[in-house]
């Protein structure tokens, strides 16, 4: 162990458990779609709500510009997802709400190279 700290994980089996879902109503109806498995911080869209399943926790990440409808329906979707996983596996996963810019370490560590959010670019028409 380096500097008296605990050993590093030598296996990445936990990566198989992590799933990221996008919740959006941009097409006029609410939809939940799974993102690719090699997601990164840039996949978190300010206009949407995301559901992240870490294998032990289910996080609902709320983008600053997401609508009230997206927020309410995403939370309900996360609760249904959490119950479905528990029914299938017997594993109870903790549900947490995370707001953009106020992410906790349990959430951040699930992303490669997490950094400060970039300022949003405004269209100058």
Description:
This protein is of the alpha+beta class and 125 residues long. 21% of the residues lie in helices and 22% in strands. It has a five-stranded mixed β-sheet, with helices on one face. A hairpin with a 3-residue loop joins strand 3 (49-53) and strand 4 (57-62). The radius of gyration is 16 Å and the shape is globular.
Concise description?
By secondary structure, this protein is of the alpha+beta class. Helices cover 21% and strands 22% of the residues.
Spatial strand arrangement across the major sheet: 2-1-3-4-5
Uncertain segments are none
Structural class given helices, strands, pairing?
Answer: alpha+beta
Count of strand segments: 5
Give the biggest sheet: 5 strands, mixed
| Number of helical segments with 4 or more residues | 2
Q: What level of helicity do the residues show?
A: 10-25%
Mean pLDDT over all positions: 85
How far apart the termini lie comes to 55 Å
Radius of gyration: 16 Å
Shape, please? Answer: globular
User: In percent, how much strand structure appears in the residues?
Assistant: 15-25%
Q: SSE string, helix = H, strand = E?
A: EEEEHEH
Please describe the topology of this protein.
Elements lengths: L18 E6 L6 E4 L14 E5 L3 E6 L5 H22 L4 E6 L5 H4 L17
């Amino acid at each position: 162990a380096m500097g008296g700290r605990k050993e590093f994980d030598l296996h990445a089996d936990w990566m198989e458990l992590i799933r990221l879902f996008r919740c959006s109503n941009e097409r006029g109806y609410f939809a939940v779609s799974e993102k690719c498995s090699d997601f990164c911080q840039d996949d978190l869209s300010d206009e949407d709500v995301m559901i992240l399943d870490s294998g032990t926790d289910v996080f609902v990440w709320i983008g600053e510009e997401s609508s009230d409808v997206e927020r309410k329906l995403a939370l309900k979707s996360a609760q249904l997802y959490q119950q479905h996983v528990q029914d299938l596996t017997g594993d109870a996963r903790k549900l947490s709400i995370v707001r953009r810019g106020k992410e906790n370490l349990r959430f951040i560590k699930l992303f490669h190279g997490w950094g400060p959010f970039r300022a949003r670019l405004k269209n100058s028409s």
